[in-house]
Design goal:
The protein is about 45% helix and about 10% strand. By secondary structure, it is α+β, with helices and mostly antiparallel strands. Strand 7 and strand 8 form a beta hairpin. It starts with 9 loop residues before the first helix and ends in a 7-residue tail after the last helix.
């Protein structure tokens, strides 16, 4: 089913059934007021990353757009109660990336090329955030069509993007994409694709219990690794357990640094993952920037950055674990590129939603 006509045909989906009322009545439609101080940061993020068509632009990546960015942008628009931006992002995404028969999004759009979407494989984290945002938007603006689209994505993720543990147990994990990450010797995982809250809420909403199980099992896997080592960007899960994924980063780097943010945004306060992340940063030598890539074997800092967004992740996690008021979170900086800017804004939203005591000081 080609979903290019989703927005223009929204009225048709309204007849598909009422929204998942029990979920809506249970809450989970957090939105900042129009007077909230963070609204200025949201406006700055839009000027930096969002074009008039609704495309979230990753300027350092040749101006490309990804389902990840579209999902992040849609979720942030819901958090800030910005219906106009939400619908703009949705319309561009549905017309440009919703090309697959299963309803998932193609993972990348390359502007200025003859075929802007040469690879129609998906990226599961982009789909996850996109569907999670649609749940929020449907509740905020009473749009059953948004809810129906979220259900399609949730069920497609359950059916096409989960894999069982190679040891034969009933444990399940979220694959990075629908194809290309399974083999006879195991499955390749990106731990940062597991966002527990989004997976649980989407699994409940879409009646896709496999996502709820994968959230539990993914979190257990990550906590087990974090008991003795930093989490890697990528791993190969075999019948014997986790191993390095050939050809992919074994370091704790730009992918893995998102994991503590996702746990904080899930309301978690004391996991081994969060503790390991905090301890690694505390043990790092003082430098001009925030460590962004660690060697997992030695804990040595391989890369660091002076971008405020990475500093915000460390500060939020420190505050959440400390249980004390006040944090060293920097104010939003609109001079940083798409990725740290987006992580920065999400960290500020997570702080506002779950940890008001962690206001920047």
């Amino acid at each position: 089913m080609n979903r290019r006509s989703f927005v223009t045909g929204l009225a048709v989906t309204l007849a598909a059934g009422p929204p998942f009322r029990s979920f809506a009545q249970g809450g989970s439609a957090f939105s900042l007021s129009s007077e909230h101080p963070l609204q200025q940061a949201w406006q700055a993020w839009k000027r930096l990353c969002l074009n008039e068509d609704g495309r979230v632009i990753d300027a350092p990546q040749s101006g490309a757009s990804h389902s990840e960015g579209q999902g992040y942008g849609l979720r942030l628009a819901a958090a800030f109660g910005d219906e106009e931006a939400f619908r703009r992002i949705l319309e561009w995404t549905e017309s440009s990336l919703a090309l697959r028969e299963d309803g998932l999004l193609s993972w990348r759009y390359l502007p200025g090329s003859g075929d802007p979407v040469p690879d129609q494989n998906n990226a599961s984290d982009g789909d996850l955030f996109y569907a999670w945002a649609l749940i929020q938007g449907g509740i905020l603006w009473n749009e059953p069509g948004f809810h129906e689209r979220a259900r399609v994505i949730g069920r497609a993720l359950e059916q096409g993007c989960l894999a069982a543990h190679p040891d034969g147990s009933d444990r399940k994990y979220l694959l990075p994409a629908a194809y290309g990450f399974t083999g006879e010797d195991g499955v390749t995982l990106n731990p940062s694709y597991c966002m527990p809250r989004a997976m649980r809420e989407l699994g409940m909403f879409a009646e896709a219990p496999g996502l709820i199980l994968a959230a539990r099992d993914g979190l257990d896997l990550m906590n087990g690794i974090a008991g003795s080592a930093l989490l890697p960007d990528w791993l190969r899960l075999t019948a014997e357990g986790p191993a390095d994924a050939p050809g992919l980063s074994p370091n704790c780097g730009y992918d893995a640094l998102r994991i503590p943010l996702y746990l904080c945004w899930s309301g978690m306060t004391a996991t081994p993952i969060q503790t390991r992340f905090r301890d690694a940063h505390r043990a790092a030598p003082a430098s001009a920037g925030t460590p962004t890539v660690f060697d997992r074997g030695t804990g040595q800092v391989r890369e660091s950055s002076d971008q405020a967004g990475y500093r915000a992740l460390v500060a939020l996690n420190d505050c959440v674990l400390s249980g004390t008021a006040g944090a060293a979170m920097p104010d939003f900086d609109a001079e940083q590129p798409y990725f740290p800017a987006t992580l920065h804004l999400m960290a500020l939203v997570a702080q506002a939603e779950f940890f008001p005591k962690c206001l920047p000081v």
